[in-house]
Design brief:
9 strands; single chain; alpha/beta; Aminopeptidase; 30% helix
Length: 255
């Protein structure tokens, strides 16, 4: 079972925030055959992205690790079996059993059914729904003591719009303009579109499944709010960073 939090506190607001890679929990059988350390696994997850959903009254947060089931991939690719499936990492010491793969595939389908039900519930009240698919990414790949990766290729916030219909591109442009150069606790934000990350399967699936009824924007926060090697978080900075996005969304969420 994929463990999730589903909160719909203000259904009159046509906005849903998702943190599908927030989780760290592993299926017990997968944990026994995990080929990487817990620290390495945490670094490749999107820890604490639940915090970015907190400004939004309607949200879904996933607590199961992407190393159990990756909800941002197709069902066929959602369970990491080989290093090629997860950036060259030896995620498993041996292949999971066929029975376990079948169970996890079922869990994947059940979670997408939950998402569908949640969206349909909101669409019963609204003709259109804005969805934020919130993620984070590493920028110190060369090591804890190394210099950060070049800013030119690593904006503070990336808005991924490649998987959405082009009719929504202008909306993303406006949101990017609202965020770019904004100050967050003395830090000037660098926000750009479709740099490195352009959105995954989830946003593509949503646009295919609910055409003309939803827009899903993938948002990647660079891990400037935490130390990606130790897992230490600057709580105040992260909260301020998330608030900046929610403030920019307020006048723009309804297309």
């Amino acid at each position: 079972m994929i463990r999730s939090l589903v909160e719909l506190k203000e259904e009159q607001i046509p906005l849903l925030a998702l943190a599908i890679h927030n989780g760290h929990e592993m299926h017990p059988e997968l944990l026994k055959i995990c080929g990487i350390s817990e620290a390495d696994r945490l670094r490749e997850e999107d820890p604490f992205t639940e915090v970015f959903t907190e400004p939004y009254p309607n949200r879904i947060v996933v607590y199961t690790s992407r190393f159990t089931v990756d909800l941002n991939r197709t069902r066929e690719k959602a369970i990491y079996l080989n290093p090629d499936d997860c950036w060259g990492l030896p995620a498993r010491t041996v292949r999971p059993s066929d029975e376990l793969i079948t169970e996890l595939s079922h869990d994947y389908g059940q979670w997408y059914s939950l998402l569908t039900f949640t969206i349909q519930r909101l669409l019963a009240k609204h003709s259109f729904l804005t969805i934020l698919d919130l993620h984070s990414y590493n920028h110190r790949r060369l090591g804890a003591a190394a210099e950060p990766d070049a800013q030119a290729d690593n904006p503070d916030i990336i808005l991924g719009r490649n998987n959405m219909p082009k009719q929504y591109y202008a909306w993303v442009d406006r949101l990017c303009s609202e965020l770019n150069n904004q100050a967050v606790m003395g830090h000037k934000l660098d926000c750009r579109i479709d740099v490195k990350f352009t959105g995954g399967w989830l946003s593509r699936w949503l646009h295919q499944t609910f055409p003309g009824k939803v827009v899903c924007l993938a948002v990647e926060f660079k891990k400037i709010f935490m130390d990606e090697w130790t897992g230490t978080v600057d709580n105040d900075f992260q909260t301020a960073l998330g608030d900046k996005l929610s403030q920019a969304m307020l006048p723009l969420r309804i297309l």
